[in-house]
Structure formats: structure tokens, C-alpha cells
Design brief:
The chain has about 210 residues and is α+β, with helices and mostly antiparallel strands. Helices cover about 25% and strands about 25% of the residues.
Length: about 210
């Protein structure tokens, strides 16, 4: 079975347009259509209207926190619609939206089936500004609970650095060894630093 590509993952949101009412900046020539949801808002406390043609429009000024939450929701909806993980750029953008704004390290996991279909995303461990304790036993239990055949790990560096530390490399090897005993493959470990990512697979560290 061919393996999904894991090349360099850039941050982009293909097919997503953000516009502001009264000052439209829409790169899509299609006109706005009827909102998908009742009331039109992506969430009750977010003034962002979603339309059927994958276009979004603000109803009022948004704070940076609201904007980041909106992008995370949009990417999460698209991410969950992907039945098979064949778009590393979307995965990277999703992980950036989920992890980049944390002021402490967070270790997470994407669980995959044997066709690399997405089962779930889960944040497992929360640490400090420069580290998080990761427990292989708990990760093995979680992988078995989700009945996953493969996983992608991710964690953020609040400092913004993208270089894997020796501790990052060591825990990845420990996790690979632990999961190999139950026939679960580690496909990648992604580090999120600000608006960019580093892939262990791309660097030949997996």
C-alpha cells in the first residue's frame, strides 16, 4: 500500500476565504450564498458567518483571540471531513491552529486506522513553558482505546524554535519502541513553533 506523503508542510488554508461585511476582501468570485447554520454564525460567541461556498464573513470586528478560535474551528471541521490523511499541509495548518497559541508545551496525538483514515485528535499531556512530561504507558493505552493502527505525534515549542531537542528525539524513540510491541506505527512527530512546523519524518528522524 503506498504511504501518504510527508514532505515539507507549509501553513495555508486552501479554499477558505475570510471577508468583512462592508469591506469585502473575497478572492473567490462566487457570490455569497445562504448561511449554512441557523443564524449563520460558526459559534454563538463568534461573529463569523459561514456560507455554503466555503466563504466566511465577519459581522463585526473580531479580537485576535476570536480570530484564532474561528480559524481553529474552520480547520477542525475540514480536518474531520478528511476520511484519509493525504494532505500534510492541512494537517500542519490544523496543528498550528490547535497548538501555536499555548504558552506552555502541549503534547498531542492524531490516531489513524490501517488506511491512515483519521480516528481522532487528542491533547494528552500539558507541561511548562519549556517541557512536558510524556508517559509511554498512557499513550499505548490511549492508542489501544482508539483501536489505532498508526499515529502522528505533535507538540508545540512556546519559544518558537523548530529544532527538535535531544529530549524530543529520545521520547519519540521510546514511543516508537513501546508502540511497536502492539503493532502501531509512528508515522511522524510534528513540532509547532509559531506559524511553522518541523516534521521528524522529513528530517529522517522517524
Amino acid at each position: 500500500m503506498p504511504q501518504p506523503p510527508f514532505g515539507r508542510w507549509g501553513f495555508f488554508m486552501s479554499g477558505i476565504n475570510l471577508t468583512q461585511r462592508g469591506n469585502v476582501m473575497n478572492t473567490n468570485s462566487n457570490p455569497l450564498t445562504t448561511p449554512l447554520q441557523s443564524g449563520g454564525y460558526i459559534a454563538e460567541d463568534l461573529p463569523l458567518i459561514t456560507y455554503a461556498n466555503n466563504t466566511f464573513q465577519t459581522d463585526s470586528p473580531m479580537s485576535l483571540d476570536q480570530l484564532c478560535r474561528s480559524v481553529a474551528l474552520i480547520l477542525e471541521q475540514r480536518f474531520k471531513r478528511e476520511t484519509v490523511l493525504t494532505t500534510p499541509a492541512l494537517t500542519s495548518a490544523y496543528l498550528i491552529a490547535k497548538l501555536a497559541n499555548y504558552e506552555r508545551e502541549v503534547f498531542s496525538c492524531i490516531y489513524l486506522d490501517n488506511q491512515h483514515g483519521i480516528i481522532a485528535y487528542e491533547e494528552l499531556f500539558y507541561g511548562t513553558i519549556d517541557g512536558a512530561s510524556v508517559y509511554p504507558r498512557e499513550i499505548v493505552k490511549s492508542c489501544l482505546k482508539h483501536n489505532s493502527a498508526a499515529v502522528i505525534f505533535a507538540h508545540n515549542h512556546p519559544s518558537g524554535t523548530l529544532d527538535p531537542s535531544q529530549a524530543d528525539k529520545a521520547i519519540t524513540e521510546r514511543l516508537k519502541t513501546a508502540l511497536a510491541t502492539v503493532d502501531i506505527r509512528v508515522l511522524d512527530h510534528v513540532i509547532v513553533g509559531g506559524s511553522a512546523t518541523t516534521s521528524f519524518a522529513e528530517k529522517g528522524l522517524i
